[in-house]
Amino acid sequence: MTTNKKAYWATPYSFFLLLFVVLPLLLIAIYALRDSAGHFTLSNIAAFFTDPKIVNPFLVSLEVALENTTICILIGYPVAYILADKSLNRSAVTAVLFILPMWINALMRTIATAEIFTAMGIGLGKGTLLFGMAYDYLPFMIYPIYTVLSKLDRSYIEAAQDLGASPVKVFFKVTLPLSMPGVMSGVMMVFMPTVSTFAISEILTNNTIQLFGTIIQENFNNLMWNQGAALSLVMLIIIGITTLIPGNRNES
Amino acid sequence: MKAKRVISQAYLWLVLAVLYAPIIFIAVFSFTEAKSLGNWTGFTLDLYKSLFSGATSGSEALIVALKNTLFIALVASLASTVLGTLAAIGIFNMRGRWKKSIQFLNNVPMLNPDIITGVSLFLLFVFLGVSKGYTTIILSHITFCTPYVVLNVMPKLSQMNPNIYDAALDLGANPFQALMKVIIPQLKTGMISGFILAFTMSLDDFAVTYFTAGSSGIETLSTFIYADVRKGGLTPELKPMMTIIFLLLLVVLLFVNLRAVKTAKKQNN
Fold first, then answer.
1. Which residues of A touch B234 (CB under 8 A)?
2. Could you tell me if residue B259 is inside a domain?
3. CA B119, CA B209: separation in Å to the nearest integer?
4. Is residue B52 in a domain?
5. pTM for this predicted structure
6. Number of domains within chain B
7. A232 CB near a chain B CB, below 8 Å?
8. For the domain that residue B104 is a member of, what is the CATH number?
């Protein structure tokens, strides 16, 4: 009986979740399907597909997010691999050094990055955006891969080596597949946040490239709550699809 | 093998150098007076002096923003730790559909990009007719901080012997005593790491605060810096402040790690 009773300890948090997670998301859907007078409409959602001022930034955001995620994997995977391998890196402090910059305000670091480019005479644009984004999101890619790799059962790798696989083969046939869950959670933590970034993209491009997050922000700033909610709803649906599909596959 | 090690270390330090370049850049230019970064006009400690004396209106507002940031982070992460620990114990003892639903909802704030969390809570406070201020900001921070506490406490629960709570009750403790004297000590490390993570997330937040502070005039460091960007010039005292914060963090990090190394050595002996 006591164990059943303890289940009720989650009651306060259950109500909290209903009020601060479920209801707000429902409100996004309700606002998205209404016009400013409160009548039902699909025009806010339709604008996402037809209005070039919305479609174009969305496509640009997907492109930037794809590039940023790729860059983060290419730079971050080797870092995580080296950090997790005791024969290559003995110090635990080095791993923490990769997270430490996150305690310094992200906007401040981004401004400094932009200032360095300006001081070097490099104009702000797509290149500086990608550099600055990779810089901001790299720790989010390194950390989950590092966690998976350092928990990896070394005996799989040793078995492959004993059976005569070359180091390259061991990596591509054993280590990489086993570390894919880490890569996937890294992708989750980099891709959608990149699409929805605002402020950071503004600073790094001098507001010449607008990402989807900036469009949502501007809608809300200009009191166009319904349009802003519709764009948020589209993002929610994309997030839902990308997270639920792999989840279901794991269960079956 | 040795060459591989050298190349690996060189790669790590190269990435670290790039990661730290902006921070070092800020630190270097905190010792000169020029308004914009990257413009060296001779060594001076003036910015440090005006930061601590609150001599300029900018530095005064900056100190207020720092205090707000720390206050909000402290209250939100403490509340999240209490709420999240109780929730974790509850979820751990649940079965079936309820357990799955709550765990799913617990993941939602972590999966949602900050801007979605911010916008959704903005609409909630509009809907409820609550005027924006410390309460709305702190409640919003609790919303995105608590999931991290739950996730850090859950593994500790599965490592715990499930019978000790019942044993405490059999020996005459009331449920509250059993919680405080038996369960909490077992969960302490998970709660502390959850608290630290929650505190960090709150400190670093920009988007959620931006949407839930409204026109209340309450600024945290993030919204303060963003307002500066919009105005087109950073408050110069930000540079010495960030430098001091960074150096403090570095000292704490080295201290904690040296202690960890020492205790590890003691255990080995």
1. 111
2. no
3. 10
4. no
5. 0.88
6. 1
7. yes
8. 1.10.3720.10
